[in-house]
Write a structure and sequence with these properties.
The complex is a heterodimer of chains A (842) and B (107). Helices cover 30% and strands 20% of the residues of chain A. Chain A is of the alpha/beta class and 842 residues long. In chain A, helix 10 (428-436) packs across helix 12. The chains are: A alpha/beta (842), B mainly beta (107). The interface between A and B is large, with 41 and 46 residues. The complex binds siroheme (SRM), flavin-adenine dinucleotide (FAD), iron/sulfur cluster (SF4) and FE2/S2 (inorganic) cluster (FES).
Chain lengths: 842, 107
């Protein structure tokens, strides 16, 4: 059978995938695609402005066509269909015979018929080519206007804002997102978006666009007002691309759209339409999830599989627009006869929540959530599964009076048929089957079921199902850091800060239960140090430290310790080297240059640590914090002082930074790098904070990682002077310290940060949360109160007492045995030790 | 009470922390909890094959008072020496007696 498909967008591609999966026996398939590249992720289009490339956005594996043997003709527009002879013609005059024809032509942006709408700099937002044009035009513009305040319009506005333009949204209706959001929600949304610095102009009807005075254009509105702008993005709705059907005798609806039945068949035999070009029961679905369902239905019908029908789709949406959470479910406007509303408005935090329930109060009909969309998953499931509401449905949106989170209905209550991921049509049963089959992790569950991989709106719910099912299987997965605290690290941080908590006892008495353990104690210790920066070996804190922190050294496999003096920036004098060498020689320690540009001395027994450190401290060395979850090293290259290419003094700056942030306790270790020029010899882009010199200052990169899962750092800001850079780093680090989970490196934290790099930029650079000053002050406190932990320790007899092997004897641990190798010591193996030690017997 | 080995004054044990002790040539880890209860178990961690238990963090897990080995973080029941993660593994647990403010271990 020969299948011809017109259009290779997201939905078209889903059809091909489904075909390849369900009918691997070769059909001959030809895809005619107008765009210059195979299907890409239009939903994530805006990510292009955050550094995603066209390749990143592709949804077509590069070997898809070679593996399946399907043919793809790019840059090819289909122009004619002869539904009798079953032949498709392209604009080049090529012809293709089909047995089955699939129309997946999508839609195009509607541009209102206003005079001047085709002037230079008037653009739309649909394809990657549109994005190139937007970026190029924005480069020469100061002001940008988006026409249309719907979902896509706001997304386009965000793009303009990101490109650094003064941004306005012009909307014909009295509120933003009029389709999804009711009046009350619209008000809150408007305030939130206006607060981000976007001009909002509702109830404006554009009548003309002509030459402006200050800007390239002026837009004139019917009410006599006007707005000057350099570029205009039209985002005033979409229209189905139904021309090819209309011109060739295939039925379309009165207001456009190719008419299809429940099998996605059009009026012509063997011709199907799917996605945004299709009109089902008078409705066009402008979302990808219903399109995917159509693709599956049409594919099943084409290959003659089981009876699968398209019976409409849910249009509920949850998204983050410009950092503002917005969600809408079902009958958001309460238009169902007899329906009742509950609403909750908090003007201080700008939160709006509304639910629409049936006349008898038993069923949920719709909902609107702005600012706090936590309830979305529960509400959506109540609606989709037609479940009975709890007795007091208002509890679903009201904050609990004791400040704890409202009680959700819990995924366990959902029926197995509940659809969890609408984009990919994954039910709870599908997820459970995968979990029963051995899947244990969210990433794995997503990749094998596809749930959560499109819009991402269901990700939280998928996570909950996983957690709940694993719980039933007896596998433990909790966000609670341990059995003593039902909180994440981030929540504990806030509890400690708000409650001015200074000891673990206080913490566990107020917020936990039991005695604590080796997870919650060090976590609390780290939080208390970040907050108050008191010496970690002070009485109430000491018993909380992990052994490495407790003995201020890293324990090795045989119970001995390593010693790492700080060598800021990797710069060390010959005298410094000699001291380290002499100390190592005297105490017979193994020495090694570390991967962090400093020297590690291994093989010290616990009772030797203070004496060794005393010698080092006396010679001017200080703790390198190799044992702490804190700043490790600031790696540097030699920089402009010596290197012929260097443009700044990278060593000098690295030393300043290392001295500034040394001792800062954080959720995980922190590493910096400073390179003197773009050749990047310090590998700064693999560090939590990376700095690269430019002719004009420094480029600041953040959230890089080496280690188990390397990640390139991302550019946060360019050409900064040293002072501004330090200010940003202060803010960045404090924000991380406040919000990261236990043992979460900045890279993982960043990957989990909602709103991504933009959000981070907004917080660090634009101070969008209004906490910059506070964070800088907090960092200043840490910097001002720094003292070397080893120096303090060797001067405190109480602390020193602890560094002994036995409380009742001066003997040493006879199980620590070294042998010589390559001229230095190393721990003896068990065989080597055999016979020399008496191991305790039970 | 012939096998009592005198270890140290109770006051010398830091709260919620451990110390090592030599008891008839065996290494013992002694802990004093916040409640004042004192426990003693072997100092040798069979997983890392190192004498490190006295340098572990104490706490409670699943209703048992435990110490976590600082190397690979196995938990041992302070009262019985049983390993929570692997029931086939057990370290010695010793009885502790306090007399005249001194800690004695029964060995
Ligand atoms: C000594 C050193 C290896 C060496 O001989 O060169 C080392 C040794 C250890 N590393 Fe490392 N890492 C050392 C450089 C690195 C580097 C290279 C660098 O910093 O440029 C990396 C990759 C860069 C990075 O972190 O992004 C590195 C990635 C890790 C990781 C993986 C982290 C990750 O995010 O995936 C761990 C495990 C962890 O932290 O959970 C780790 C953990 C460890 C521990 C702490 C493991 C342990 O618990 O015993 C080792 C103990 C060190 C000790 O006793 O002093 N070490 N480690 C290096 C000390 C540098 C220093 O001067 O402080
Ligand atoms: C910026 C943006 C953000 C969005 N965000 C979301 C979101 O968050 N959630 C959501 O669910 N949806 C979102 N959407 C909508 C979603 O992208 C669409 O629903 C989806 O792409 C529709 O897929 P499709 O395959 O039907 O059409 P398209 O992806 O438009 O593909 C149709 C393809 O057919 C080609 N074509 C048309 N006519 C011809 C012809 N005659 N010959 C050859 N080729 C032809 C077109 O060039 C196009 O490549 C967003 C859309 C945009 C633009
Ligand atoms: S790579 Fe592994 S073995 Fe080597 S130092 Fe790092 S943690 Fe230890
Ligand atoms: S609902 Fe969109 S990815 Fe699951």
């Amino acid at each position: 059978m020969r299948i011809v498909m017109i259009g290779h967008g997201m939905v078209g591609h889903r059809f091909l995938e489904s075909l390849a999966k369900n009918a691997p026996e070769q059909h001959e398939v030809i895809v005619l695609a107008e765009e210059p590249r195979p299907a890409y992720d239009r939903v994530q289009l805006s990510a292009f402005f955050n550094g995603k490339t066209a390749e990143d956005l592709s949804v077509t594996p590069h070997d898809f066509f070679s593996n399946t043997g399907y043919g793809l003709q790019l840059n090819t527009r289909a122009t004619g269909i002869d539904t009798v002879t079953k032949i498709v013609t392209t604009q080049n005059g090529d012809t293709f015979h089909y047995d089955k024809l699939i129309l997946a032509t999508g839609s195009y942006p509607f541009v209102p018929p206003v005079s001047g709408n085709n002037r230079e700099g008037c653009l739309v937002y649909r394809t990657i080519e549109d994005l190139h044009a937007i970026r190029d035009t924005a480069a020469g513009s100061k002001v940008g206007v988006v026409v249309g305040g719907g979902l896509l319009g706001l997304e386009a506005a965000k793009a303009l804002k990101d490109l650094g333009l003064e941004t306005h949204v012009v909307e014909f209706a009295p509120r933003l997102m009029a389709v999804q959001v009711d009046e009350g929600g619209g008000r809150v949304l408007r305030k939130k978006i206006a607060d981000l610095g976007v001009g909002i102009h509702t109830e404006r009807n554009t009548v003309e666009i002509t030459d402006g005075e200050k800007c390239r254009h002026v837009m004139k509105f019917s009410d006599g007002t006007s707005l000057e702008t350099d570029m205009i993005l039209f985002s005033a709705g979409i229209r189905p691309r139904d021309d090819i059907a209309k011109n060739n005798g295939i039925a379309i609806g009165p207001r456009g759209g190719i008419v299809v039945d429940n099998y996605c068949r059009t009026s012509a035999p063997d011709v199907y339409a799917i996605g945004e070009c299709a009109l089902w029961e008078g409705k066009i679905y402008g979302l990808v999830a219903p399109g995917y369902q159509m693709a599956e239905v049409a594919c099943t019908h084409v290959v003659g599989g089981a009876d699968k029908q398209f019976l409409g789709a849910d249009m509920s949406t949850k998204l983050k627009l410009m950092g503002v959470d917005v969600a809408s479910i079902g009958d958001a406007h309460g238009t169902t006869a007899g329906s009742l509303n509950y609403s909750y408005v908090d003007e201080r935090t700008q939160t709006y929540k509304k639910i629409v329930v049936s006349a008898d109060g038993k069923k949920l009909l719709g909902a609107v959530l702005i600012g706090d969309v936590e309830a979305y998953g529960d509400l959506l499931q109540l609606k989709l599964n037609d479940m009975n509401l709890p007795d007091k449905p208002e509890g679903l949106i009201l904050p609990a009076s004791d400040g704890s989170k409202p009680v959700g209905l819990g995924v366990d209550a959902l029926p197995m048929t509940a659809q969890i991921c609408s984009c990919n049509n994954v039910s709870k049963a599908d997820l459970c089957a995968a979990i029963e089959g051995g899947v244990r992790e969210l990433g794995e569950l997503k990749s094998c079921t596809k749930a959560g991989t499109s819009c991402g709106g269901c990700a939280a719910l998928v996570g909950q199902v996983l957690k709940c099912e694993l719980g039933k299987l007896g596998v433990e997965v909790k966000k609670d850091i341990c059995e003593h605290f039902a909180y994440s690290r981030q929540e504990m941080y806030h509890l400690a800060k708000i409650g001015n908590i200074r000891s673990f006892d206080d913490m566990i008495a107020k917020h936990g239960k039991g005695d604590g353990c080796d997870i919650c104690k060090p976590t609390t210790a780290s939080i208390l140090s970040s907050l108050w920066n008191e010496h970690i070996l002070k009485k109430p804190l000491a018993g909380l430290q992990d052994t490495n922190d407790y003995f201020l050294a890293n324990m090795q496999k045989d119970g001995t310790y390593s010693i790492v003096p700080r060598i800021p920036g990797g710069e060390i004098t010959p005298d410094g080297l000699i001291v380290i060498g002499e100390v190592a020689k005297k105490y017979k320690l193994y020495t090694k240059i570390t991967g962090g540009q400093r020297i590690d001395l291994f093989g010290a027994r616990v009772e030797q640590l203070p004496v060794i450190w005393k010698e080092l401290v006396d010679a001017g060395f200080e703790s390198g914090h190799a044992y702490g979850k804190s700043l490790r090293t600031v790696k540097s290259c030699v920089g402009s002082t010596w290197c012929r290419y260097g443009v700044q003094d990278s060593v000098g700056f690295a030393i300043d930074l290392e001295n500034r942030y040394r001792g800062l306790r954080s959720p995980h270790k922190l590493k910096f790098g400073v390179s003197g020029c773009t050749r990047e010899c310090a590998e700064a882009q693999s560090k939590d904070v990376g700095i690269i010199a430019t002719e004009r200052g420094w480029n600041l990169y953040v959230c890089g990682n080496g280690g188990m899962k390397p990640r390139h750092a991302e550019l946060l800001a360019s050409d900064l002077d040293s002072e501004t850079l330090i200010k940003y780093v202060d803010r960045f680090l404090m924000f991380y310290v406040r919000t990261a989970d236990r043992l979460q490196r900045t890279s993982v934290w960043r990957d989990n940060l909602e709103g991504g790099l933009d959000y981070l930029k907004a917080v660090v650079i634009d101070d969008s949360l209004g906490i910059a000053e506070e964070m800088e002050a907090q960092m200043k406190h840490v910097v001002d109160t720094f003292s070397c932990e080893w120096k303090d320790a060797i001067n405190d007899p109480e602390t020193l007492k602890r560094f002994r092997s036995f409380v009742n004897s001066d003997e040493v641990d006879n199980n620590v045995v070294f042998v010589e190798e390559r001229g230095q010591i190393r721990p003896a193996t068990v065989q080597e030790k055999a016979g020399r030690i008496a191991v305790a017997e039970v | 009470m012939t096998n009592l080995v005198k270890v140290c004054p109770v006051a010398e044990l830091p709260v919620n922390l451990g110390v090592g002790a030599l008891v008839k040539g065996q290494q013992v880890a002694v802990f004093k909890l916040k409640t004042g209860d004192i426990y003693a178990v072997g100092n040798f961690d069979p997983f890392s094959e190192a004498n490190v238990i006295s340098r572990g963090l104490v706490g409670d897990l699943q209703g048992h008072k435990v110490v976590a080995s600082p190397i690979y973080k196995h938990h041992y029941n302070l009262a019985t020496g049983e390993c929570l993660e692997d029931e086939s593994v057990k370290i010695p647990a010793y009885s502790v007696v306090v007399q005249d403010e001194y800690v004695y271990i029964v060995a």
